[in-house]
Amino acid sequence: MSEPTTSHRLDVVQAAVVEHLSHLRAFARSLTSNREQADDLAHDAIVRALAAAEQFTPGTNFKAWIFTILRNLFYNEGRKRWSRFTSIDDLAGNEPSIPGSQEASLEFCDFRRAFWQLNPDQREVLILVGASGLSYEDAAAVCSCAVGTIKSRVSRARQDLKKMMSDDNLQVRRSETAMGSEAELIESLRNPPQAEAARRSGK
Amino acid sequence: MSDENTPPRKRAKTMLPDGPRATVDRWFDAQLNQLYSDVVNEPLPDELAQLVAKLKKRTTET
Q1: What is the per-residue pLDDT across A57-95, written as a single tens digit (0 to 9) for each?
Q2: What are the chain B neighbours of A182 within 8 Å (beta carbons)?
Q3: Residue A85: burial class (beta carbons within 10 Å; 0-12, 13-18, 19+)
Q4: Which helix (H) or strand (E) holds A124?
């Protein structure tokens, strides 16, 4: 069987980028916690992937391949370039409380708050395995670690989420904030809290 | 919509589902998928939309 040509690999990568771009953005968002920076990171990862198209083997897992490129870019070029906010304390008082009629969304809001309080490694594995659909093996390849490490991080992340959602921490923070509009609620669901803090502070 | 004069209503904290750990994990996965799919379903920003358009054009040309 003949080797795929460079042109063929580039075609495959181009088509796959289009197919997986939304997932790439979502993974980048989980790393940077910021919409604009995540999109910049995704853009740079695509440019890298196109330049390295010759290294991709058609028939292998493209999503894992480009996620690895994006992750390496994020860590190799320094988290600071991609993460403007590192402390959850920056967010205090910026999250709206929820009108009483939206009980169904409240559980999701609580989950969302807890999720952003996890450490980055935990957020990463939950997104890779729990949401993006990668296998433990592929997630381990993306993170350059053992499968067992991924499994234990996922387990620990779930335990921490459970703990955070079972104590009063989230409830106290919510009750301290002012009443927000429905639009603010929807916005808060779509944007990670750091991005919202950035928007409000005008940075 | 809420009345501006009504103070924020306190409610009970989120009750995680009872049952075996797998049930709670499934609940977490459902929330996580909602969080993830919100981003996946967002419209692309202009810069990325233009990039996709270019890639699609190149793919059809070859």
Answers
A1: 988 999 999 999 999 999 987 665 655 544 333 333 333
A2: 1
A3: buried
A4: helix A120-125
User: Model confidence over A155-169: pLDDT tens digits?
Assistant: 999 999 999 888 755
Contact B31 A126 (CB under 8 A): no
Mark yes or no for CB contact B10/A175 under 8 Å.
Answer: yes
Q: How crowded is residue A196: how many other Cβ atoms within 10 Å of its Cβ?
A: 20
CB contact under 8 A, A131 and B62: no
Secondary structure (3-state) at A36: helix
Q: H or E stretch including A74?
A: helix A62-76
CA distances from A9 to A57, A58, A153, B50, B58 (A): 7, 7, 34, 22, 13
Chain B interface includes A132 (CB < 8 A): yes
**Tell me, what's the pLDDT at A177?**
39
